[in-house]
Structures are given as C-alpha cells and as structure tokens.
Design goal:
By secondary structure, the chain is α/β, with parallel strands linked by helices. It is about 35% helix and about 25% strand. It contains 16 helices and 23 strands. Strands 8-7-6-9-5-10-11-12-13-14-15 form an 11-stranded mixed beta sheet, with helices on both faces. A 6-stranded mixed beta sheet has the order 16-17-21-18-19-20, with helices on both faces. A 4-stranded parallel beta sheet has the order 1-2-3-4. Helix 13 crosses helix 14. The chain is globular. The relative contact order is 0.08.
Length: about 475
C-alpha cells in the first residue's frame, strides 16, 4: 500500500516520504524494509527509544508522539490511536464490512462470546470468534496468543473473516486491550458487560482504573447489554454513552429476566422473560452464573435482530464451552474442569456444583505467579467455603517461586480445619486427587480450563488436563 494512502484519515505533522508499505508495527524486532514503525510509551519500555534503530533496519518512516529529530519522522498526538487507525487502513478497513459484537467483564467473556456465535450460526449466519481459547474464522480454528489481539493481528483476522463470508465477528474485549487502545476506532453493534470482580490489579494498579478500562468499550457501542445484578453494571448504566441500554437480571426488573430458575448438576432451566416474549430455556451448563451467561448471550443476539425463539433453541442445543465447567467424566464419580482462576469465579462455579454433590466435593486449584498476590487468600476462602477436600497445587508460577505462592494461599485452608493436601507439581496433584475419588464424589479442576500448558520459571511446558484425566481413566478401566 502507498504510504500516502495509509495515512489518508490520520492527523499528523511532518512530511511523509514516498514509498510502498509492507508492514505497520510497534515491535522494533519486526521492522523490515518498507515497514512503518509506530512509537508509544508502554509500562516498561518506550518505543521512541527504538525509532532510530527502526530506520536503520529499513523502516519507511517512524511515527512518534514527540519530535526526535530523525529523518522520515512524522508526529501524532497518540501513537496507540495512530497504530490502530493505520492497521485498519492497511487491511482495507475490514471491520466496517462486519457486524461487531464485543463482550467484556471479569468472568464469562469466553462463554458468552461462544454462545453468541452459536446463536448466530443457528440463525444461519457465518460468524468469526476472537477470544481466550482460540480464534474461529467461520468453522476454521486459529490459535490465540492473546484474548484480544493487537491492531495488526486483529485487522488481519477481520480481513480473513470477510474473505470467508462472515457477516459477524464476536470478540472478547480484555481490560488490557481497552487500556492500550487496541480496539480504537471500531464500532460495535452490541457490547456486553458481564460483571466486575478483583483481577488484573497487577496491571491496572487500582480497581477504578480496571473499571475505567472496561467502561471505555461502551463509548464505541450501539446496543449495550448489562448485568445489573452486578454493582458495577448498575454504575456503568449511569456513566455510559451507549445509545441503547439493555439490562439483564435474575432478581430485579430488567429488559431480560430469568424466572423460576431450576439448577441441577446437568444444567439450568428457567423462564426467560424479555422484550415482548417469554420462553423456557433448557441450558446444559450448571450454576447460577450460567443463567447470566445465557441471558447475556440471548439479549445480545436479540439486539442485533435474532428472534428470541432462535436464541432459545440454540441455547438448548449448545454443547457448552471447552474448559468452562466442562464434564471430563461422569460415572460412579464426576470430574469437571473450569478456567476459574479468581476468587469470584471459583465462588460462582463451586456454589453451582456443591448443592448437587452426593459425596465429597474435591477442589484442585492453584494461584498464578507474577499476578495480583492479594487474591490468593481470597481464592482459598472461596474454596474452603464449599470444598470437602482441597488440593493446593501450582497454576502458572511463571518466574515466581511456586513455594512462595503456596505460602500465600495455604494459611486460609489450614485455618479452616478442612482436610487438604499440598502438591507443587500439578500433574502429580491430579493423580493424587483422582486416586482418592469415591462413588458420588465430584472433583473439579480449577484454573487451567482450556489451557494445555503450564509456565514454570519462564518456560512453557505441555500440560493438558483433558489428556491426563483421559489417560488415567483408561489405565483404571473407566473408559
């Protein structure tokens, strides 16, 4: 693409050189001849420090937020905004050819986006999905590195979705992505807010910053779907600029409510009462939080024109979501896995399972390294509130000492008087947990969910709990 065309709608100062653009990047390591290098200041590094090196590596020009006195340099007010706009331009603004739906919140993003895509497909549309587990371009799966990709990768995915004939793109919007303006300039036909609980304070530092990042999405949203049973959802209604505010609730008067909720180990049943309709929903994912997820997905689908009957039918036929309260084995005992890695997520999943557990509820969990350490005792509190037996192990220690992480989480469990064991090595912990299973017991593996790896001392190793459980069951003649 010609450099002049690339900057067509971008406000800048300076003189653009002539040339054809091969790449737009904020990563100096990717710079090649013909690249446009965009500088911005991050948490630990400043792109401006690499501008001269980018020119030496063959960059066509560098985009800066302040004058550096370099050749082939242009200035913009915000490097992050400019980067988002330039990436959209490079790929021919593919998002404008798609109907975008975004979901944000601490918990439920992956489930709600997956359910929305399933509803859209049930209605006859081709759709793309961008999220934590993977990216889907219609029926093709693509590995995901980040929950919400950066502007270059994001627009490349949008472009592929357009070429695949997709009408919709449904995506998770993480707080870090919103804070870093990765979604700058995009228009979302619908946006969903699920809830807000403590997470990512290692990045945002304060809860107000965390909330502000989530809230920023709704400046770009036409139809806003909000869980008003969450106090931050109610606050969001008063502070958002969305054109159409749609509310969901299990308790209060709202645009979409759930009546006569019946919970079981097999799923949830409820009467969904909405704008001009009332339908019974039979949804095969357990827990009260699954009612919220189903309501949010159905409300978002309705906001973009999908009939309520179609949404309800799709929810009933859903096969669930990998790693989200997923049943790995159901026989004389039950083994589940869930991505729950915050105290609120653990509270939600365990409260939905405990009432229907005939034997013991055994909970295996760990706390992430190099993340908010304050939530570690809170996670333990959520576990001992419901568990009959706790197995404390590692999640992703990263470069933090796993024994130090255990030390933060164990005192609460020890003080509870509940029986528990500590096993640092997660694979061994799984074996020990499965070996203690008795008829009627439920074992839930919290934290990894869809992930098939573990990060230890900065090294990523293969660890797939689905496979470990399957092989153990086969060795013990259960499957």
């Amino acid at each position: 693409m010609n450099l002049q065309k690339l900057f067509g709608n971008v406000i800048y100062e300076g003189e653009l050189p002539q040339g054809e653009v091969t790449l737009v990047t904020q990563d100096s390591r990717r710079v090649c001849p013909g690249a446009v290098f965009v500088c911005a200041k991050g948490l630990t590094t400043d792109g401006h420090d690499y501008a001269r090196g980018a020119l030496e590596a063959g960059a066509l020009c560098v985009v800066t937020e302040r004058p550096l006195g370099l050749e082939r340099e242009v200035h913009v007010q915000s490097g992050r905004r400019a980067y988002a706009e330039l990436c959209q331009n490079f790929f021919g603004r593919p998002a404008e050819k798609l109907r975008l739906i975004a979901v944000t919140g601490t918990n439920g993003k992956t489930t709600v986006t997956t359910l929305i895509k399933q509803i859209l497909e049930h209605a006859g549309y081709k759709a793309g999905l961008i999220g934590t587990i993977h990216t889907e371009i219609d029926t093709m799966e693509v590995p995901a590195k980040y929950t919400t990709p950066g502007p270059w990768d994001l627009n490349a995915l949008f472009s592929r979705m357009v070429m695949a004939g997709c009408s919709f793109a449904v995506m998770e919007a993480s707080s870090q992505a919103l804070d870093q303006l990765r979604l700058w300039g995009l228009h979302f036909e619908a946006g969903v807010f699920t809830n807000l609980t403590q997470d990512h304070l290692d990045y945002h530092k304060t809860f107000e910053n965390y909330f502000a990042a989530k809230k920023s999405l709704f400046d770009q949203v036409e139809h806003m779907i909000v869980n008003i049973d969450d106090k931050y959802g109610r606050r969001l209604l008063t502070e958002s600029g969305a054109q159409d505010q749609i509310t969901v609730s299990l308790h209060d008067d709202a645009d979409y409510t759930a009546k006569d909720v019946k919970l079981s180990a097999a799923g949830v049943r409820f009467e969904m009462v909405g704008r001009g309709f009332s339908k019974e929903v039979d949804f095969p994912m357990p827990g009260a939080y699954s009612v919220y997820n189903a309501l949010c997905a159905a409300a978002a689908a309705a906001a973009v024109g999908i009939p309520a009957e179609t949404a309800v039918s799709a929810l009933a036929g859903s096969c669930g979501v990998r790693g989200r309260c997923e049943v790995l084995y159901r026989g004389e005992y039950t083994i589940l896995c869930d991505y729950a890695h915050t105290n609120d997520a653990i509270e939600k999943v365990l409260s939905g399972i405990a009432p229907f557990t005939e034997g013991r509820l055994i909970v295996l969990f760990g706390c992430a390294g190099e993340r908010d350490a304050k939530k570690r005792p809170l996670m333990s509190e959520a576990v001992v509130k419901y568990a009959d037996f706790a197995v404390l192990t590692s999640d992703n220690p990263r470069k933090e000492d796993p024994y130090a992480i255990i030390k933060d989480a164990e005192p609460v469990i020890a003080a509870s008087g509940k029986p528990y064991l500590v096993e640092i090595e997660r694979r061994t912990a799984l074996f020990r947990a499965m070996e203690m299973l008795q008829p009627g017991d439920v074992l839930i593996l919290c934290g990894k969910g869809h992930e098939d790896y573990q990060v230890i001392d900065g090294v990523t190793i293969y660890l797939d709990e689905h496979r470990i459980v399957r092989e153990w069951l086969a060795q013990h003649g259960k499957i």
